[in-house]
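Posting here for the record, re: zinc ion.
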Amino acid sequence: MSGEKIKDSEEQVKKGNTEKEKYIRPTWDEYFMEVSRTIAKRATCDRGRSGCVIAKNKQLLVTGYVGSPIGMPHCDDVGHLMKKVIHDDDSISQHCVRTVHAEQNAICQAAKLGVPIEGATLYCKMTPCRVCAMLIINSGIKRVVCEKKYHKAEETEKMFLKAGTELDYFDESIEKYENM
Ligand SMILES: [Zn+2]
Ligand SMILES: [Zn+2]
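Prediction output follows.
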């Protein structure tokens, strides 16, 4: 009799397991992007609170977020430091230049700690700017994964294409900043 009961409860467990929705693990790209979203929360410039993760062989190597150089005031405390950039087509855009970008800070952390990042993948919020793109190329980073596309992404996309740096987007929608 007790044997019957055990059998019943075993079947119950089996049934329960198959009826439960199967847990879907995040992909490695999703995993590192999720980490970079958390890191972004430490950012100190609200024009683009972004974070960055550099990973290789499924392992996280270094991280960075957008913020002023160590010891210097933050945008969140003293406001942005805006500079105008005049483009070839005479259009003018405005950028906050107070901060070291998330990608740059991750590369700095690698230099500081002596972590080789050649052949690594970089995860970030949106298409890196021109300066970040140049640093990424020269660091030997081979793949860049962005959550979104920056509205002025063309220059970086062209450089990555020429340098052979793979560029992937999570979401093809375009991120626009106010007061450009
Ligand atoms: Zn700022
Ligand atoms: Zn940048």
